[in-house]
Structure formats: C-alpha cells, structure tokens
Amino acid sequence: MLLSASTGVLLGVLVVHALQTLMRRPSGYGLLLAFFEAGSVIGALLMPRLRERLGTRRSLQTSAALGALATLGLAAARAPVPAAAALVLLGVATMTWNTLAVTLRQELTPATSWGVSPVRSRCSASALPPSPPRSAA
C-alpha cells in the first residue's frame, strides 16, 4: 500500500517536474504518463513469469527496489528521454507490486472470509461521523 501511495504522490508531482524541468508543453506531460502506462502493461504481462521464477517474496522485493531506482532516475532526469525510461520502469514496478500484493492477499485469505474484509472496512469508514465544515477564512 505504501508503494502504491508513494507512486500516486510521485505522479501528482510529476506535472511540475515535467513542465518546469523536462519540457514546457502540457502535451509532453501526457506523453510521459503514456510511458508510465506502457510500463504498467509490461509489468502486468511479466508478473506471472517473474513470480514463477523468483517466488512471491523475491518478486515483491525486486519490484520495490525497481520502483525506488526508477524514482531516483526520474528525480535525476533533466531531459524527456531518461524521464520516459524511468517512468516505464516505475510502471513495471508499480503494476508488478500491485498485482503480486493483491494476489498474495487473496491466497492468504481463508475462503470463508472472501468478501468480508472489504465490506467490513467500507462499513467502518462509512460509519465515521462527517467532519465539520471548514470556514473560508
């Protein structure tokens, strides 16, 4: 979950990095996102073979390490091509991690609890009292 959240934050800040450092056109930002998505498709296709070859634990470790390296590469990128390469790797890492983590959770959850945990957490979240409105000061 932490890797997914940090990737979401990173992609949220990417627009600033893309427009201020890498290029000046918004269309370039969209193109960079397309490279991330291409990496995600590659990660989804590679995950079964990676898991078969390395096992779940090592595959999760590898995808987390790849995600960290891709993030560092993206931060260091000062041109669109290295940034695009880093985003492909980040897409591979993120999709591999997400798919492996969900698969592992499903495998570890007893059949009698299938569907219970998500419903329970949604009910708990919806039972929270609403937060008070904020004043426009």
UniProtKB/TrEMBL annotation:
Molecular functions (GO terms)? transmembrane transporter activity
Q: Which terms in the GO cellular component ontology are assigned?
A: plasma membrane
Q: Superkingdom of the source? A: Bacteria
- Give the signal peptide range: none
Pfam families, alphabetically?
MFS_3
Q: Where is this region: Disordered?
A: 115-137
Quote the subcellular location field of this record. Answer: Cell membrane
Keywords attached to this Swiss-Prot or TrEMBL record, sorted alphabetically, are: Cell membrane, Membrane, Transmembrane, Transmembrane helix, Transport
Q: Where is the Major facilitator superfamily (MFS) profile domain?
A: 1-137
- Protein name, per record: Major facilitator superfamily (MFS) profile domain-containing protein
- List all membrane-crossing ranges: 28-47, 59-77, 83-104
Q: How does it sit in the membrane?
A: Multi-pass membrane protein
Q: Which PROSITE patterns match?
A: MFS
Its main subcellular localisation, reduced to a broad class, is membrane
What Gene3D superfamilies does this protein's entry cite? MFS general substrate transporter like domains
